[in-house]
Design goal:
The protein is of the alpha/beta class. The protein has helices spanning 3-46, 59-64, 68-76, 91-100, 104-107, 135-142, 176-190, 201-209, 214-236, 263-266, 291-299, and strands at residues 48-54, 78-84, 148-152, 168-171, 194-199, 243-248, 267-273, 281-282.
């Protein structure tokens, strides 16, 4: 056989072998990329956020009370007892700023009793008439197939919400235990990507008996017991490992009230646990309650709304 022909045949055979080998490599790489993408998608879909909002939780009395379950959350996550409310340190402005990622000057919710049906001013960047974009509306806009639920214990909370942003909205005005029972059931059965809860017993005790009173401390300790039952339920249902839990408050209190600028009224707890959160880590950066919405958005892979002015608490994550 002529040398030229032999060389051609040998090159052809080697080329086929090389091509066949490279085809296997390409298929293998594509398969790895697919599995990686699928795993990432599953991880994103399985991530859940549970917000435990405790109305009127005074950090100074929280430290005095016997709270083994809240203490356990701190050890499992990143935390501070020096996060700040917006002013005034009242419920509606702060629940709004917490969930809307911006201060009252933008949300236009400056006091309790705000009602979007009668309010004259319109908020900057309103997504619908007289309504500032919230973490709930962004969830529905960016991830419409995911479930968003809320369970709350305060009638005025309904004025701050748009019912269309939730799969389930439940108000339980009489009993904190009932509120927690509904919250546990919603999370265990419906498995929402975001569940926001609101408990009123600490604020009620502060107004009626005074912050620091035995009755107020008892309300804090009852909240702690309910947090323990909630965590136990999540672990039993296999949901704890992929759940981010954020415990926080709208304000503290002094004597029988709140609304002012004292540390007792403005300092709030901010405790975050979850798969990628630092463990037993005291946060050093300044945190304002409207940073909460952006931190939730970061966890759930949402793009922050252009009108939000807060920041994600990046320091909390590994």
């Amino acid at each position: 056989m002529p040398n030229g022909v032999a060389f051609f045949l040998l090159s052809f055979i080697k080329g086929n072998v090389y091509f066949h080998h490279m085809k296997k490599v390409v298929v293998f790489i594509c398969w790895c990329l697919f599995l990686s993408s699928y795993a990432h998608a599953q991880k994103r879909l399985n991530k859940r956020v549970l917000v435990i909002g405790v109305d009127g939780l005074n950090v100074y009395d929280l430290e005095k009370a016997n709270t083994p379950n809240i203490d356990s959350l701190r050890k499992q996550g990143a935390w501070t007892y020096a996060a700040k409310t917006v002013m005034p340190s009242s419920s509606s402005p702060n629940w709004a700023s917490m969930t809307m990622g911006a201060p009252p000057d933008l949300t236009t919710i400056h006091a309790n009793g705000w009602d979007r049906q009668t309010y004259i001013d319109s908020p900057t960047c309103a997504g619908s008439p007289k309504f500032f974009p919230s973490i709930f509306s962004e969830m529905k806009r960016q991830r419409p197939k995911d479930k968003v639920d809320i369970v709350h214990q305060w009638w005025s909370m309904r004025a701050l919400l748009q019912r269309k942003d939730f799969n389930r909205e439940r108000a339980t005005f009489l009993s904190p235990k009932r509120t927690m029972k509904v919250a546990r059931r919603y999370f265990a059965i419906h498995k929402p990507a975001l569940l926001f809860t609101h408990f009123d017993q600490c604020d009620h005790a502060g107004h009626e008996y005074g912050h620091g009173s035995p009755e107020y401390i008892a309300a804090v300790e009852l909240m702690d017991k309910m947090v323990g039952k909630l965590v136990k339920k999540l672990k039993k249902k296999g949901l704890y490992e992929n759940t981010y839990i954020l415990l926080t408050s709208d304000h503290g209190g002094i004597d029988h009230g709140h609304g002012g600028d004292t540390p007792q009224e403005r300092n709030i707890p901010w405790i975050l646990t979850g798969p990628t959160v630092k463990k037993d880590y005291e946060l050093k950066s300044a945190i304002v309650t409207y940073d909460t919405a952006l931190t939730i958005a970061k966890i759930l892979d949402l793009k922050p709304h252009a009108c939000w002015t807060g920041k994600a608490v990046e320091e909390a994550f590994q």
